[in-house]
C-alpha cells in the first residue's frame, strides 16, 4: 500500500514516483491518495461555474466567495448543550 497526494510527481503510469516504486518492487501496489487533493479540482471548477473566476490577486470575485471573508462573523442559531 502506498499513500500520498495527487501531485503530478507522485501519480501517473510513466516515470512518476509511485510508478517507479512499483517497478522497483516488481508488482502493483494499492494506492491510497488523499481525497482532499483528489476533490480539489472538481470543487474549484464548481465554484468557478457558480460564482465566477478566482484569482490569486483578488481572490473570489462572486457573491458566494465574498461571503467567505465574513464566515467567522456570521451568527449561528443553536442551543448550547448543558
Could you explain the architecture of this structure?
- This protein has one domain (2-71).
- It is elongated.
- The model has no long low-confidence stretch (mean pLDDT 82).
- The chain has helices at 17-25, 35-51, 63-68; strands at 2-4, 31-33, 54-55, 59-60.
- The longest helix has 17 residues, at 35-51.
- Strand 1, helix 1 (17-25) and strand 2 form a beta-alpha-beta unit.
- It is built from three helices and four strands.
- The protein has a two-stranded parallel ribbon with strand order 1-2. Strands 3-4 form a two-stranded antiparallel sheet.
- The protein starts with a strand and ends in a 14-residue tail after the last helix.
- It is an alpha+beta fold and 82 residues long.
Summarize the structure.
The chain has 82 residues and is α+β, with helices and mostly antiparallel strands. Helix content is 39%, strand content 12%.
Amino acid at each position: 500500500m502506498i499513500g500520498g497526494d495527487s501531485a503530478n510527481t507522485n501519480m501517473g503510469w510513466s516515470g512518476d514516483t509511485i510508478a517507479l516504486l512499483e517497478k522497483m518492487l516488481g508488482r502493483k501496489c494499492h494506492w491510497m491518495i488523499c481525497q482532499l487533493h483528489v476533490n480539489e479540482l472538481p470543487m474549484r471548477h464548481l465554484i468557478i461555474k457558480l460564482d465566477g473566476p478566482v484569482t490569486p490577486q483578488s481572490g473570489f470575485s462572486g457573491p458566494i466567495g465574498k461571503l467567505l471573508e465574513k464566515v467567522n462573523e456570521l451568527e449561528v442559531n443553536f442551543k448550547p448543550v448543558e
